[in-house]
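Internal QA ticket QA-208
Title: Verify multi-chain structure generation after dependency bump
Assignee: T.L.

Test input:
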Amino acid sequence: MKAVMPWLGLLSRLVLGGVLLAAGLLKYQHLDKSQMAVRAYEMLPIAVANFIGIVLPFAEIGLGILIILGAGTRISAALGSLLMLVFVIGISQAWARGLSIDCGCFGGGGQVEPGTANYLPELLRDAGLAALGIYLFRFPQSKFALDKSPQSPNLEKGI
Amino acid sequence: MSAKPQPGKDNFTRNLVIGVVLGVVLIMLVPTVISKQTKSSAKIPASVSAERGYGIVFNGDLKSVPVIDLYEDFQCPVCAQFEGAQGQYIESLIAEKKATVVFHTLSFIGTESIIAANAAACSADEDKFLALHKMLYQTQPKENSGAWTNEALVAAGGSVGIKSKSYKECVTNGTYADWVSNVQASAAKANVNSTPTVFINGKEADRNDYYDPARFAAAVERG
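Actual output:
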């Protein structure tokens, strides 16, 4: 198991980082739409939602790159997980309140025709990605990472 | 574990990478945030009012008639459906002075939305907004297909009788590009999350009424 875990770490990094980077780049191309997507969750005051709509793609791109490279793995994976948990909360509340929105996860977003929203797969995906981030936070050592020294000193013994 | 951690070795490369990534993200973020603010210096077309969300206003001076705010994107296929269902009715309201109509030409679908909205603003200066508006929806290409270029929009203007040199220059130079961005920013403030969106007297109309002429007319008359 010990020999496999750095490879699992690499896989987690590529999946979580890759998804964040792709999501960020797709949103970055249509920032107006991204703002629209955040507003459609009806969770935040409009001015705040508009600001988040611009900042979020940049945050996703930055985190995605750092996680893929394995630079500051623990912190960036923790932030990535946190982001996914925020998405899970956002989508859950939209579902619970009966809003009809596109999650806007990979660009797009905004209101959709009632009945066409499909929240469950989105929730499962984001929860799975959050789990990858939590795994990386707990076991940050992985293959081909820029991080050189273990950030958790007792990790070697701990596993 | 093969790659033993080397406590003596510093993390110079890693720290450099983190610094560069965060730096570049911030350097790109700040101008983007600023560019989304309303530009008070934007050149605005005739019949536009900043108080009305930078929309193109018809019958703005009428009192005690319903005010209809239309948020649409020239590239949005559902907006073309809406135009097909209600375009004539809305034009008749304008012609018969039965309503104030404000067109908010949004641009979130892509760059072709931006140049189309710019061309629409240019046509407003020539008093041909409604004609070009209709023509663009009737000939709407697939989203972001590259069919709408400045040349194509000049030609579209020509097909509805706008032959002037000033229109051509206005389209080609993107004279109202900043205004287009202001329209979008103001729709963001108005919490418009899809197109088409219709407000009647400041209240969002029921989406189920959009494509049914009788119900839409009733909603307008109720005010």
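Spot checks passed. DSSP finds six helices and two strands in chain A.
Status: verified.
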